[in-house]
Specification:
Elements lengths: L2 H21 L4 H12 L4 E3 H8 L3 H14 L2 E5 L6 E5 L3 H26 L5 H41 L1
Helix pairs in contact: 1-2, 2-4, 5-6
Length: about 160
C-alpha cells in the first residue's frame, strides 16, 4: 500500500471509530480522537496534531479530550522542552472502563432490589418487571466480574512472559 492509500485507510478507520461512538450515543469527535490515539506514531499527540488528523475546532478537541480523560481512556502529559500539552491512550484503561460500567450494573441491580422490597406485598404480576431487571443485572454481575478478574490475571501473566523472553 502506498503512503497516500495508507493515510486514506487510517482516516477511514478513524472515521469508523467516530461512527461507532456516535451509534453508542457518544460524541463522534471523541471516537475519532480515540481511534487516532490508538494507532498514531508517536503515541502522544498535541491538540494541534489531533486537529490536523481528525479535524474539528480547538474547542471540540479540548472538550473531547477532556471527556476521554475523564472516562479513563486518555491521559494528559507534558514533554520535556515543549510547552504543549500532549494526549495519549492510557494503556490498561479497558479493564478500568469495564469496571466502571460494572459499578453501574451493580447500582441498577441494587435499585431493582430496593424496589422489590417496597413491593413485597404486591402481586407477582406487579413485581415481575423489577424481578426481570434484577435477574438481568445480577446475571451480568455474576458472569462479567469473574471474567474481568480472569482477563486481568491473563494480562499480568502475558506481561511477565514477555519480560522474560
Amino acid at each position: 500500500m502506498n503512503p497516500v492509500q495508507r493515510e486514506a485507510e487510517y482516516k477511514r478507520l478513524i472515521e469508523d471509530f467516530g461512527i461507532v461512538f456516535d451509534e453508542m450515543g457518544l460524541p463522534r469527535m471523541a471516537g475519532r480522537i480515540l481511534g487516532w490515539l490508538l494507532v498514531c506514531d508517536p503515541p502522544h499527540q498535541s491538540a494541534a496534531q489531533l486537529r490536523e488528523m481528525v479535524g474539528g475546532s480547538k474547542g471540540a478537541i479540548s472538550t473531547m479530550t477532556w471527556l476521554l480523560i475523564h472516562s479513563g481512556l486518555v491521559e494528559r502529559l507534558g514533554m520535556p522542552g515543549s510547552r504543549a500539552t500532549y494526549y495519549r491512550f492510557k494503556c490498561g484503561s479497558w479493564s478500568e472502563l469495564m469496571k466502571s460500567r460494572m459499578s453501574r450494573v451493580r447500582a441498577m441491580r441494587e435499585l431493582s432490589e430496593r424496589g422489590l422490597s417496597l413491593m413485597e406485598s404486591e402481586s407477582p404480576e406487579m413485581r415481575r418487571r423489577l424481578e426481570e431487571m434484577r435477574d438481568f443485572y445480577l446475571f451480568f454481575e455474576q458472569k462479567v466480574l469473574p471474567l474481568l478478574d480472569r482477563r486481568e490475571q491473563h494480562h499480568v501473566e502475558k506481561l511477565a512472559s514477555t519480560a522474560k523472553g
